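Comment thread on ticket #2218

A.B. wrote:
> Attaching the input chain for the structure job we discussed in standup.
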Amino acid sequence: MALYMIVEHFKNKDAVAVYRRFRDSGRMAPEGLTYVAGWVDEPMERCFQLMETADRGLLDEWMAHWRDLVEFEVHAVMTSREAAERMSGAGPRPAAAS
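C.D. wrote:
> Ran it. Output below, let me know if you need it in another format.
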C-alpha cells in the first residue's frame, strides 16, 4: 500500500459547491482507495487529504469525479517512521555536541 497526500484547491474558492456534492454523493472513492484523514485550511480554500491505495490509477478515477470543482496536487508520501527506517543506513551519525 502507498500513501498519497492530496492537496485540493477549490476552484473559485468555492467550498460550498464541494461540500454540497460531498453531502449529496459522498466521497465517490472507488473500492481499493481508502480515505485516511483530512484537514481543511482556515479560509476553506484548500483541503489536504491523506489517501491510501495499492493502485495509483484509483486516485485518477476518484479525482475525475471532482475535477470540475477542484484542482489537485498529488504527492506520494511516507510516514516519519518509514523515512527514518529508510535513512537508518544513510551514513555516519553527527558527532554529539559538547
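A.B. wrote:
> Thanks. Noting for the ticket: The mean pLDDT is 94.
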